[in-house]
Amino acid sequence: MLFALTGRVALVTGASGALGRHFCRVLHQAGARVALAARRPEAVAALAAELGEGAIAVALDVTQEASIAAALAAVQARLGPPAILVNNAGIAATRPFLEHTAADWDQVMAVDLRGAFLVAQATARAMVAAGQGGAIVNVASILGARVIPGVAGYAAAKAGLIQLTRQMAVELARHRIRVNALAPGYIATDINADFFASEPGQAMVKRIPQRRLGQAQDLTGPLLLLASDAGAHMTGSVLTVDGGHSINSL
Question: Is 154 considered catalytic here?
Answer without folding.
Answer: yes
